[in-house]
């Protein structure tokens, strides 16, 4: 989503990650070059992923989603609409933001509020290195 407030702000570069190894390599590159490393999973951003002197890591292609044994596994770039569409087939839901085009990484790392986050246990923000477990709701 284009926002003219941030038009003049440009990252040093954008790495489009298609594997976990791509993400690791991007983080190492940013660290080795004294750059901030900013994840972007798609959809909207109100300036959070628009940073100067930074490498933006686009994890949008990491968008796999699966559900088995009451556990949903989602890639960092999975979109909220796709996640909720799959979970709806099983009568489940997940506390996230409300924008259908938003990628899961923002809400999983502490951003976004939606209809499911107010009445259910919204997990705290976590480090990207930690596993993120949120309650599935019927």
TrEMBL record:
Residues 111-138 are annotated as: Disordered. Residues 1-138 form the FAD-binding PCMH-type domain. PROSITE patterns: FAD_PCMH (PS51387). Gene3D superfamilies: 3.30.465.10. Keywords: FAD, Flavoprotein, Oxidoreductase. It holds the Pfam family FAD_binding_4. Its cofactor is FAD. Coiled coil: none annotated. The keyword ATP-binding does not apply. PANTHER family: BINDING OXIDOREDUCTASE, PUTATIVE (AFU_ORTHOLOGUE AFUA_1G17690)-RELATED (PTHR42973), FAD-BINDING PCMH-TYPE DOMAIN-CONTAINING PROTEIN (PTHR42973:SF39). Belongs to the oxygen-dependent FAD-linked oxidoreductase family. This is FAD-dependent oxidoreductase. It comes from Pseudonocardia xinjiangensis.
């Amino acid at each position: 989503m284009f926002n003219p407030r941030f038009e003049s702000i440009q990252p040093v570069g954008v790495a489009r990650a298609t594997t976990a190894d791509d993400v690791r390599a991007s983080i190492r590159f940013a660290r080795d070059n004294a750059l901030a490393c900013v994840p972007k999973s798609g959809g909207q951003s109100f300036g959070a992923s628009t940073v100067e002197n930074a490498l933006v890591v686009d994890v949008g292609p990491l968008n796999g989603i699966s559900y088995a044994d009451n556990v949903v596994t989602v890639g960092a770039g999975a979109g909220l609409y796709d996640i909720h569409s799959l979970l709806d087939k099983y009568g489940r839901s997940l506390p996230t933001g409300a924008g259908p085009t938003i990628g899961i990484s923002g809400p999983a790392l502490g951003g976004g509020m939606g209809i499911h986050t107010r009445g259910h246990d919204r997990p705290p923000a976590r480090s990207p290195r930690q596993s993120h477990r949120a309650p599935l709701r019927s």
